[in-house]
Amino acid sequence: MQDVYKECPVLENDRFLLRLIEEKDAEDLLKVYSDKRVLPFLNSDNCHGDNFYMTGTEDVRNAIHYWLKEYAGRGFVRFTVFDKSVNAAVGTIELFLRRAEDYFNDCGLLRLDLRFDYENPKDIAEVLSVIIEPAYSLFGCSWLATKAPVYAVDRIEALKNMGFELSDQCLGGSYGGRVYDGYWVIGEKHS
């Protein structure tokens, strides 16, 4: 099995390319993280209260530096979602193997952040289709989970169409005993 933390692969389909985030993505990604319409779709569960709202390119660069530090420490991989048809970064995907003492132990946890105009069933499914299959071997998991709040109707439609199911389990928080709902799962869960 390839070690994703030693060599992060470049994954792609006809339209989208996913690769390890780079500082040069900051200007494009500001269009994601400075858009208040995007905020409700960002998964900040267990992120120390950060909502990922960024008002300047320097804020995004600082986030990228943190994400690359986490990658170097084997915390998670933050992929840039690059739309080849417009030659621009249009979002990010964070993915890691979650180790915890709750239902979501040993699952690949996926966080998808997209520019607002990509928050539609077709684009979401097209982006996720690039990462779903490789994620199992890259992260050594047999199932994946991602968050979609009840109001994220386009995201939920895309997830349902791809075979995800809403879990009735809550993800345990690392801070203060909080729990989080709204997680959709795909793959084979092993107890």
List the helices and strands and how they pair.
Blueprint: E1 11-12, E2 16-20, H1 26-33, H2 57-72, E3 77-83, E4 88-98, E5 107-114, H3 121-139, E6 143-147, H4 153-161, E7 165-166, E8 171-172, E9 179-180, E10 183-187
Parallel strand pairs: 5-6
Antiparallel strand pairs: 1-2, 2-3, 3-4, 4-5, 6-10, 7-10, 8-9
Folded structure, characterized:
Helices cover 27% and strands 26% of the residues. With 191 residues, the protein is an alpha+beta fold. The strands form two sheets. An eight-stranded mixed sheet has the order 1-2-3-4-5-6-10-7, sandwiched between helices. The protein is globular, with a radius of gyration of 15 Å.
Keywords:
alpha+beta; 191 residues; eight-stranded mixed beta sheet; two-stranded antiparallel ribbon; Aminopeptidase
The end-to-end span amounts to 22 Å
The geometry reads as: globular
The level of helicity is 25-40%
Give me the strand/helix succession.
EEHHEEEHEHEEEE
Q: What's the CATH topology name?
A: Aminopeptidase
